Amino acid sequence: MTRKLPALLAAVLLLAGAFIFVDRPNGASAPLLIGAANAEETAQIDTASIADMVQGAEDAPVTIIEYASFTCPHCANFHEGPYKKLKSEYIDTGKVRFIYREVYFDRYGLWASMIARCGGPEKFFGITNLIFKGQSDWIRAGGPTEIVDELRKIGRLAGLEKDGLEACLQDGASAQTLVAWYQQNAEADDITATPSFIVNGQKVSNQPWDEFKALIEAELAKQ
């Protein structure tokens, strides 16, 4: 099963007004709304600063792009199961170059993405694994403050320092750019649900591992 994307315009309008957090005198973190952008403004944002997160050999014969949301349970299931097989059998053996691109259903997925990217490419996939592994816990932690506190805990568990973590969460310009990047990628690849995959340029929906593996093998046979 997959999670369907909302209308892109609605998502962009929601997410461009993403929450960042400020510390109150009592030590609690409270949400602060950064300025919203309309869809046209978002489409004009320069997204060159947002790097694709990549695993595997650059010259691998098969390139797989995954589009996933950190709040999508089907994406968590993929990363807890088929992804591990994909990595051990194809990514680590030089057969597949894997690119992960975030999709934002809601502000929580955006915050999770900002945490995952906070440690740079070296820590991204490790933090991503922790976020998906603990998804059922942090996503149900309560309101926005409780959820972001749980995401902070994941970041600290991954070795991120407090000041750097807060700087990432407070980076409103990065949040806006990530939303624009998501919109441009999703429109370009016609992404309507998560997880979705692009395998050597061909759009593929979520499917059982045996079928996904057969598709990869078919692509390798073409080389």
TrEMBL record:
Transmembrane segments: none annotated. Pfam families: Thioredoxin_4. It comes from the Bacteria. Residues 24-221 form the Thioredoxin domain. Belongs to the thioredoxin family. DsbA subfamily. May be required for disulfide bond formation in some proteins. This is DsbA family protein. It comes from Antarcticimicrobium luteum. The lineage of its organism: Bacteria, Pseudomonadati, Pseudomonadota, Alphaproteobacteria, Rhodobacterales.
